[in-house]
Amino acid sequence: MNLLAILACQEGFLAKNKKNVLLIFYSICFALYLALGGLSFLVLEGQQEDTMQQKILDVKTKVTRKFPDVPTEALDEFLDELEDIGVRGVSPTNNTKWTFGNAVFFSATLLTTIGYGHLSPKTPHGKVACMAYVGFGIPLTLFVLACFVDSLMRLSEAYKRTLFNKLQGFLEPMTIRLIHISSIMLSILVCCFIAPAMIFQRLESEWTYLDALYYCFISLTTVGLGDYVPGVDPQTPNVDLYRICATIFIFFGVAIMMFMMSVTADFFQNYNSCYVENLPFTVSSEKIPINTVDVESYGSIFVQNSKIITEDLRNKIVMPR
User: In 10 A of CB 306, how many CB atoms?
Assistant: First the structure.
């Protein structure tokens, strides 16, 4: 009976501090997921980085052998400056990067917080203008995207009502909800990833399909690593128009990703409300001193409530629409 009393008290504590407990649990899960990601990429990419570093050393050795009069320190300084120039978005091959299409594409990466890093302002006026543009533009972009997502959510609700009207007599409500969210996810997968990746693969001569699919995912999730950027090759035909089309793809793609997260959150919220919030089990918020508790009666109440939960879960719950 002492064990039952302790369990009952713990149940009351968890009920009163549910949000804090969940926050701690989610934080621990996030930290573990972050550590797992770091370890995974270290194992997967560390060896490749060592290989590339060795290639650089081999090239430096060949250059010093071919041009023995060039000091090694001067060569290292030249390579460092070349790397710095590339990071700042200037092409070492004298290809012009600040065209109208590139500038529009750069603005899109700012407003969507993708930030590929392929271009960056270098003048003081450009840096000040960039900060002002982003400071006003990001809230405006979020507002526009939120309006777009709201419209998509209304279409989603209309689609869900249509499914319920046609399938309610044949399938369980949860099954209909699964059909609803699965069809939306499949449509997003095709329209935002599979089909665009095929287009990018055809337009980018050096990209494989995996590269193009990887670019779509990294961009639309606003990660924006910058290792793949469309239209970098100056020989690409109609590169400005290509960049503007890529800008449109990014804006609509980011909005659809936000819509996908909203639909997913709505699905799990309804799932929890059906299976958790409607259970006939409540824990009193009244603080009961442990030394005054009638352990035997309290334990019997706890067991009785546990039986109610078990019986309720065995029955099919008619979920609210």
Answer: 15
Secondary structure (H, E, C), 132-185: HHHHHHHHHHHHHHHHHHHHHHHHHHHHHHHHHHHHCCCCCHHHHHHHHHHHHH
- Alpha carbon distances (Å) from 265 to 143, 179, 260: 20, 16, 9
- Kindly state the average pLDDT of the residues 206-212: 93
Which amino acid belongs to residue 155? L
Q: What is the pTM of this model?
A: 0.63
Looking at residue 218, its pLDDT comes to 92
Tokens of 157: 């609700």
- pLDDT for 176: 87
* Domain identity same for 49 and 193: no
Cα atoms found within 13 Å of the Cα of residue 203, Cβ hemisphere only? 23
Instruction: Check residue 211 and give its pLDDT.
Output: 94
* Contact between 213 and 197 (Cβ < 8 Å): yes
Concatenating the DSSP letter of every residue in 5-54 gives HHHHHHHHHHHHTHHHHHHHHHHHHHHHHHHHHHHHHHHHHHHHHHHHHH
Rounded-to-integer distance, Cα 82 and Cα 91, Å: 9
**Ordered DSSP codes for 254-277:** HHHHHHHHHHHHHHHHHHHIIIII
Give the span between the Cα atoms of 291 and 294, in whole angstroms: 9
Number of domains in the chain: 2
The residue type at 262? S
Print the domain residue range for 21: 1-87
Region 47-69: what's the mean pLDDT? Answer: 76
8 Å CB contact between 193 and 216 = yes
Residue 266: give its domain's CATH number. Answer: 1.10.287.70
Contact of 224 with 218, CB cutoff 8 Å: yes
The more confident residue out of 277 and 41 is 41
Determine the Cα–Cα distance for residues 240 and 104; give it in Å rounded to an integer: 9
Q: For 226, which DSSP code? A: S
CA distance 305 to 302: 5
Question: What is the model's pLDDT at position 219?
Answer: 92
